[in-house]
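Example 3.2
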Amino acid sequence: MEIKRVLLKISGEALGGEGENSPIDSSKIDEVAIQIKEVFDTKRVQIAIVVGGGNIFRGKNGSALVGKSLEKKGIERATGDYMGMLATAINALALQAALEHRDVPTRVQSAITMSQIAEPYIRRRAIRHLEKGRVVIFAGGTGNPYFSTDTAAALRANEIDADVVLKATKVDGIYESDPKKNPHAKRYITISYKDALQKTDEIQVMDSTAFSLCMDNKMPIIVFELFHPHNLKNILLKGHKIGTLVSDKKTELHI
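Structure, written as tokens:
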């Protein structure tokens, strides 16, 4: 697979520190920036990024926040999701700062208008930035509640005509069951879109809407470990088969 343009999805949790009082871990953001720069400096691959906000606030968990003023009902889902979108903007700005510190020109585009800190998301402008050799970070999810940042990644990848979605995680691919609970769990080398959809609750990598959008548009997904040195370069520049490929190919387990 020749990759000339990629959509990298980074979860908020991947950027978070340990404990409730350290939502952003600067060392992790630096590590991500280093891996992106390795690829960027070759000028061979255009890079767009979607960041999550779960390290700061996750919308669907807002209902658990109960206080006297909330009458024991918590925050309604739509409001919680908008709060989560704002959290993605914080992560996007942190990542932009780390990249530009390493002389990687970067633009942040947001699906929610916040003109003082980010450009509005405009598809043609995003593509033009990529063509001019800039990294583009998409914040604000899709701009709509009830949609995850995984779905935003699938949507943006198709809109900018990316060759692949790289889903960065803390594990080295998709497993048939939770490898933390089952040390004998086997990793998928490849898994078909249909099997991934059927096993969404088990594999817990992306939601069904994101998988469906990629399946309908034949957009391949590679799920890989983000914090293994040089993984991004090895996938994009050297063609190494790292992690798990989600595509229309036959499902295959690692033996």
